[in-house]
Amino acid sequence: MAVSAPPVISATSSGAGVPGGLFRAEPMYSTPGEPPRLTPNMINSFVASNHSGSAGGGGVCSASAGSGNTECRMVDMHGVKVASFLMDGQELICLPQVFDLFLKHLVGGLHTVYTKLKRLDISPVVCTVEQVRILRGLGAIQPGVNRCKLITRKDFETLFTDCTNAR
Asked: Is residue 22 part of a domain?
């Protein structure tokens, strides 16, 4: 019995119904060129239209004039600038930011801080959506964060003392 060899398909023949052969000379997908870049003018116009004020160096920024709780200022705490809001005559600071700056290396995690707050009878204030947007824009909290709490300076000092004495 005779054995026949399989058919040979060349790269230029149109076998298997593929027009132009098995291999294409041009890529199937075109790679885009350099992605568009934001120019300084584009960035400045965005910042000017979304924030009324400067966030750097102790500046003040506010998102809307309708609520007095959206005025944010950078205040000095232990030599570091921290975001704060003035609410009902009290200065409230961003708890996740001060955790990241001062407490992270002292305690296991943010959950531990909330447990300490309960034990110390400290009640944080929940941020509004607008306040969270401002804090994200300032870099006080991570971009994906959609909730945040605020505490007074006095409460922070109590918490900080408790964390440092616990070690």
From this structure: no
